[in-house]
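Researcher: Please predict.
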Amino acid sequence: MSETVSGSSAIEQRPGFVRLMDKLEQDDALIVTKLDRLGRNAIDVATTMNRLETTAVRVHCLALGGVDLTSRAGKMTTGVIKAVAQFERDLLIERTQSGLKRAKAEGAVFGRPATLDADQPDAVRAGLAAGVSVAELVRRHRTSRQTVMRDATLAAARKAA
């Protein structure tokens, strides 16, 4: 079977590969030219290899000398691939956390924009304390019921702390 979709696409976005996986049965052999044909990165390859291993499908990689990745030598190769995948994942998490930390230090604001301007939360809390209905506060401040209720909940939590 031949597929023309890029290997950089997620496995779920490769219809030919999905059809192939559905047709594979126990003791079948899957031959790939290069290991990267099994996924878009080391993590994806390791996931695909695990899936094939659970269905007892042998995988031969021509770029690795045709080695059967389900043999002892192949399992060692697969172990290295899994270690690299975990290392890659850990690095990705580390870089993401570092980037978020740097962005926050530089003043970046995350999340949805506030629906109330700087003075409105105090006015909403004052209105709630004065017994104004939530519906009336929604109309006054042109916001949603959820925003008023969230603000009331946050105010109550701060008061309790």
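Model: Residues 125 and 154 are 10 Å apart (CA to CA).
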